[in-house]
Design brief:
Number of strands: 0
CATH architecture of the largest domain: Alpha Horseshoe
CATH class of the largest domain: Mainly Alpha
Strand content: under 5%
Number of domains: 2
Helix content: over 70%
Shape: elongated
Order of helices and strands: HHHHHHHHHHHHHHHHHHHHHH
Structural class: mainly alpha
Length: about 425
């Protein structure tokens, strides 16, 4: 029996890792299926193929250096032969023949290197694709099509370091293009119109690049590395629909990596951008509650999360059932956080009320349910309701989570015979 002691999870859980907010708090990354459909939609054309479409269309759509191909020229004939050949070995020979001949003239080396990139990418020879891709960038650092190809090659190879690096290149290319002044002899109005057309024409490709990079870095196994990569993603694509999502996942990953300083930096930064970000409100409320610090702020964040959820609209692409489940879990996490704050404030009766209300809402997530019941056990012990506390600890120990062993230890203590006071 525990006598004359106020129990606090901060002390009881000392040395244990912080519990990460469950993945349901975040919008799921773009599905691979949707990425594949979009990939089929986007034509991975060699530089020459784009150039053969026609001068006005090519200029309107291309971001990067434009290399005109004169109709009827040796280069034109060579490129037509390359494009009409389906045999891979023969195609490579023809590309090499072009590179050694007409492809040496003027800006044609850019076309030749682009053809090599396209060929090696189609053959899944990613190292050669990277080699020639770097040659393209050496000739034209603003080749957006080359950036797309390099991102695709990195994603298919599973090279996350190259993936984020080429993603950053793609983002920088688009940002430089948006900020570029009109070329000499072109009016500002005409240039703005041309840029608008080019950006619209490349919109799907740019979204696809973001999806590939986000999905790839999201799957990095090491939490610290995943967090750093996601922050880099948000910096490279500040206007992306995935930017805030990336920062939210990064904050949680920093929490998993036990890097509190970076977690707080990213989470507070995201809340400054979006004060109603439920995931960050919950993350910070839970963190401060566990630490027993800034409890008024923690309580405000938890209550704001609940009120935000009550008026939140269902996100596009989420079913009614999924939205109902997500809202229930998030509300349950907020109530559980309030229960922990109540324990820290020694308001144990209110803690029990909040934690009991949270239990059915978080039960679908083992880790969250175990933590909630573990907290409930402490609140009940503080109220000297040992039988109910034992039941709560039993429930916490019934699922696989970081709280299983902790709850079992508490159950052993409750089962031990009471020590008699000295007479």
């Amino acid at each position: 029996m525990f006598v004359g002691e106020e129990f606090c999870l901060r002390n009881a859980g000392h040395g244990t890792k912080m519990q990460a907010i469950p993945s349901l708090l975040k919008r799921t990354p773009a599905s691979r299926g949707r990425g594949r459909r979009l990939m089929r939609k986007i034509k991975w054309l060699a530089g020459a193929a784009i150039l053969l479409v026609g001068w006005n269309i090519a200029v309107a759509q291309q971001i990067g250096k434009y290399v005109p191909i004169q109709a009827g020229s040796d280069a034109d004939h060579a490129l037509n032969e390359i494009n009409s050949t389906t045999d891979p070995a023969q195609k490579l020979q023809l590309i090499q023949k072009f590179a050694d001949g007409p492809g040496k003239e003027g800006d044609y080396p850019l076309v030749a290197d682009g053809l090599f990139v396209d060929y090696y990418l189609s053959q899944k020879n990613y190292d050669k694709a990277f080699e020639y891709g770097e040659r393209v960038f050496a000739l034209d650092r603003d080749s957006f099509q080359n950036a797309i190809n390099m991102v695709r090659a990195s994603a298919e190879k599973g090279d996350v370091d190259r993936l984020i690096s080429y993603g950053e290149k793609a983002g920088a290319i688009v940002q430089r293009y948006k900020a570029a002044a009109a070329p000499e002899g072109t009016s500002a109005a005409a240039w703005d119109e041309q840029k608008t057309r080019a950006l619209e024409a490349n919109k799907d490709s740019y979204t696809y690049v973001q999806q590939l990079v986000f999905s790839g870095v999201y799957q990095a196994k090491d939490p610290a590395k995943r967090a750093a990569l996601l922050v880099r993603f948000a910096q490279a694509f500040p206007d992306s629909a995935f930017a805030n999502q990336a920062l939210g996942v990064a904050a949680t990953a920093y929490q998993q990596a036990q890097n509190t300083t970076k977690m707080l930096e990213v989470a507070n930064g995201l809340l400054a951008k979006d004060p109603n970000d439920v995931g960050m409100l919950l993350l910070l409320s839970d963190y401060y509650g566990e630490k027993g610090e800034q409890l008024d702020k923690a309580e405000t964040y938890a209550k704001k999360a609940i009120s935000t959820l009550e008026r939140a609209a269902k996100p596009e692409g989420v079913s009614n059932e999924q939205w109902t489940q997500q809202k229930a879990l998030q509300k349950g996490l907020a109530l559980s956080s309030l229960g922990q704050i109540d324990i820290e404030k020694k308001e144990n009766a209110q803690a029990v009320e909040n934690l009991k209300a949270a239990a059915p809402l978080v039960k679908a997530d083992d880790g969250s349910y175990a933590r909630n019941q573990y907290r409930l056990g402490f609140a009940l012990l503080n109220l000297k309701k040992n039988a109910e506390a034992k039941e709560a600890f039993t429930q916490a120990a019934s699922v696989n989570s970081p709280y299983k062993a902790l709850a079992q230890e508490k159950l052993k203590g409750l089962a031990a015979p009471a020590r008699r006071k000295a007479s």
